[in-house]
């Protein structure tokens, strides 16, 4: 589809940033998956050497193996040179909502330490304010689900347990937790403050507000070229 072609265009552009010897954060989702595939092509064409990836989910680890990108454990490296990842919303300050794929906990660890965190999106993800089109995903310890739901309501949220599509009952993340999607009907005026307030709730593992993490955003526009919000 056209959208796939747009995603692939930004993925191809993004992996041009990878130099031999780099340690690459491998994000999760359909767009990040294309970056893994394009990186695999560069490796198979010997355009880059000695590149290793750090996966952010089962999905990205399996795809890396499939496309010939060697992966190492995050604890085997002391830095990430560049991380490629998708997003569900991006605002003008390059703050993000992520977690549509329920992988935001490991993604945020890798993206936050990357020297260059490069976000790949299509135009539909660009928003004037975070939270207008997408709820904030929150990974929650099952043990603490009820008190966390009450605390999220207390922050002005409207929380909904994420149910799976091809499994009865809730989504269970790669880390064995549940995901709650929280709408904020009043809007999110201060995303940095909200990110911290949500993460301070006992039983919350991580939320999908990514503040001051992205360094570059590559946006695939419908007429095929990419604009980078640097
Ligand atoms: O789950 C995630 O954070 C993904 O990056 C998601 O937000 C974007 O996935 P997409 O590239 O398939 O739209």
UniProtKB/TrEMBL annotation:
Pathway the protein contributes to: Carbohydrate degradation; pentose phosphate pathway; D-ribose 5-phosphate from D-ribulose 5-phosphate (non-oxidative stage): step 1/1
Q: What EC number(s) does the entry state?
A: 5.3.1.6
Q: What class of enzyme is it?
A: isomerase
Give the UniProt keywords, A-Z. Isomerase
Could you confirm whether the keyword Cell membrane appears in this record? no
Q: What domain of life does the native source organism fall in?
A: Eukaryota
Family note: Belongs to the ribose 5-phosphate isomerase family.
> Which protein is depicted?
ribose-5-phosphate isomerase
